Structures are given as C-alpha cells and as structure tokens.
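Researcher: I've been going back and forth with a colleague about how MHD1 domain-containing protein might be arranged in three dimensions. Neither of us has a model we trust, so I'd like an independent prediction. The organism is Hibiscus sabdariffa, in case that matters for your notes. Sequence below.
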Amino acid sequence: MEKEKEKSSKASSKDDRGELPLMARLAEEVSKVAFREKETFSPILKRWHQLAAGVAVTTLHSCYGNELKQYVSGVHELSPDILQVLKHADRLEKELVQIAVENSVDSEDGGKSIIREMHPYEAESVTSGLVKSWITERTDRLKEWVSRNLQQERWDPKATRERFALSAVEVLRIVDEAFEAFFLLPISIHAALLPDLATGIDTCLQQYISMAKSGCGTQTFVPTLPPLTRCSRRSKLGTVFRKREKGHKKTQGGTGNDNDSCGTPQMCCRINTLHYMQTQLDGLSKREMTHLTNSVSTQDISNGLEKAFKLSAAACEEGIQQLCEATANKVIFHDLTHLFWDGLYIGEVSSSRIEPFLEELDHHLEDISLTVHDKVRTRVITQVMKVSFDGFLLVLLAGGPARAFTLQDFEMIEEDFGFLTDLFWSNGDGLPSELIDKFSIAVKLILPLFQTDTESLIEKFRNVTLESCSSSATKSKLPLPPTTGQWGPVEPNTVLRVLCYRNDEIAAKFLKKTYHLPKKL
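Model: Here is an independent structure prediction for MHD1 domain-containing protein. You can compare it with whatever you and your colleague have in mind.
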C-alpha cells in the first residue's frame, strides 16, 4: 500500500515512455494490486475479518480517488490524456466495486456498508463536462468565424463555378471537421452528447443564414402609397417626367455592380448560397455517419442529426424566399423605377406605354437566368413576375395624381398587360402558363373596371361600400373605405381608386361632393 501511495504522489504528468498517462498506468497497477489482494491475501486475512477483501479494495479506491481528484482539479480542457485517465479510472472503479460485492455476499447487509464508503469517481460525469466545454469552444469559434468572414463577404457569383459564395463551402468544411473530431474522441457517450454538438452547430448555421440575407429587406424598394386624390387634368407633368427619364443615369437601370453587396448579381449569389447550403444539410447526417468509430447505435445518431438541422433547413427555405422577394422588388421598384413607377402612364397613356419597361426587364430576366441556380430559377422569375403584376396594379390604383385614365385608355392598358404576361411566357420557353394565370388573376379581374362607364362605376361603388359597412351608412353618406392593399373588383377601396383616376367630370363631382378629395397631394 505504501508503495502505491508513493506512485500516486508522482502522478501529475504523462509517462516519459510516451505510452499511457501516468494516472492511467497507476489505475492499471492499482487494479493488479486489488486482484492480487483478492486472490492471495484476502483468503488468509478472512480468518480475522469477514470482509477483508472489501476493506482492501475500499482503501485502494480511496487512495486512487484522492489522487484522481487532485489530477482532475488541474484540468480545464479536453485532451487525449485526460480521456485516457478517466477511461481507466472508470474501469478500475467497476473492478473494485465488483470485488467488494463478491466478497460481501455472505455479510448481513450484502456489502452495502462497504459500497457506501466507496465514493464514486464520477468519471463519466467529468468526461461529459469536459466534452461539453469542448463543444462550446468549437461552436464559439465557428460563430466568430461566421461573423468575421460574412462581414467581408462580397457575394460574388464569379467566385465559384456554381455561383455561390466560397464562405458556404468553408463553413460546411469546418462543420465536417467538428463532427469528425467529435466522433474520434475516445469516449463511449457519443449518442448522449451528440445533441449538444448538433444544436450548437445548428445555431452557427442559422447565424450564417441570417447574415446571408441581412441588409436585403423585401420592402425596402416598394413605394409608399400616396394619399387618395382626384386625378389632375392633363398637364405638362408627363413631359417633365419624360425629360427626367432622358437624363436618368444608366446605372439605375442596371443589375448592380461588383461593389454593391445587394446588387442583383449579388442577390442571386446569396440565393444560390442558401440553396447550396440547403442541399448540403439534407445529406449532412449521412456524411457524418462515416465518422462514427464506436459501437453506438448508428440509427440513434442518424435520427439525432436529421432532427437537429431542421431549423437550419427551414431558415434556408425562408431565406431563399425572402431574397427572391427582395430581388424582385429591387429590379421592379429600383433598377427600373424610372420606366415603371416614375414613367408608366405618366401624362398621356398613349405616349407612356409599357414597351420601354419590358425591354429593360427582359435584360434583367436574362441576367438573373444566367446567374441564379437552375433549381431556384423559376422561384426567382416567378417572384419578379408577381411583383411586376402587383406593381402594375399599383400604377393603376395608387400611382398618384399625375396619372389619369379615360374609357378609351382601357384597350391600351389591357394590351400592355398582355405584353407583360407574354414576356414571362416567352412563347412557351418561360414560366408555365398555370403560374402566369395564377398570379395574373387579380389584374384580369380588376381591369374591366377601367372600361366600365362612370355612372355604373359609381353605383357599383355605392353598393359594395354599403355591403361592407354598418347599417348607419346611406347612399348619400358613404364612409371612406380603408386602404387594405387587397385589391379586388368588389373591394370598395379598389373601386374608389378607379374612380379617383377616372378622368371625367362625373367622377370628379362625385368625389368632391362625397369625400372632398383634393386634386393635388
């Protein structure tokens, strides 16, 4: 016993021979002493003490436990040495307990008193705590990497052949390395600690996804609806807008430049990046299974990984949709605003038709098609189509007093919308006709209001307003319907707006008498 205590007092560093750490070798030596005690001395000493073997192993357990406690108190990070020591300590403890139990079978309490004196080493608990600290350190480093690198990310679609950001490749490489290192740890509790690692990495990936879409708000470019007014008479305002258009800088009509992190090419790169990450997450659990090196149930680990990355996968899906919307809004209401929101139908309809807008939009659609991944191309183009259709309605229903329409303008407006839908159909090479029909239905239902004579339109407005408001309203005292933005042929605010942009005296008198609407903003 004295010799063993001398050995333990020196157990603070690794064995010079580079084999096992000295504390692990000490555990092996203590185990040999315990079995030698059990086989050689305990049978003799049992004449004087019924639980001689139990007393011996309890003493050995206590001596090694004191040294182990001191050793562990100086350990603050995970290392192969500490894992080896804890593994051998756990094995030693089980062997000593087994000897004590076998020696106490015939005792009155079945050896309970002896076992109570053997305070557990809690090697698995210490291992678990160190591995959790290791996981936290790994994920914290990954978070720092994501934050630092994405602040510098240029989102250049030319950076990779697949036109996504290199940072996505790098972050997934780091994730793979973290899983590989985890599964290579010489522990037996991979399944128990896997959720901690997977959850930590999932949080890092969500941070990446969030930063990949940051600064590209979907509503940033959508114009604010002006207050309701009566339309102005034909004026020189249209001429002013057309002169301004001629002097408009070409850069506004472009698709962005290399220094614009939210230019159209960069937006497409962001979309491609999230799509790439989404596809990689789908197979992440299968890839990480190749790192499994112990006998833990592979099914349990696979299920754990699949569940862990559902949040990241959902964030990718949401991010792709948000970036599609932001890209569409930018193209329609920023890059082409001089031809669309600031140009279409300003002044005379016949002199401010949709062709110039369609010509430039066609160039943008071509650029998007060449840049965005083919698996998400339809989603992006569909969103551009949706925004252009919604924007077309905004021009007609909320384009400000510089726009005014007569019954004779209806055919040109309807024809222009037909040109717009044809652009996306592209003789069958563009979007499916069912998608175009789905998103064009609102415009097609509302356009007939622009060919309805003013008296009928006023009567329709009275009827739909009375149907939608309280019984106290009358045809002579109509409440002003709120702007919901949910345009429809029987929605009161929609019908009212068609009247507001109707360029005739009957509509002007009705609006002035009923609501005292001004002609100017």
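Researcher: What would you highlight for our discussion?
Model: I'd start with this: Residues 123-152 form the longest helix (30 residues). After that, consider the following. The chain has two domains: 2-121, 124-420.
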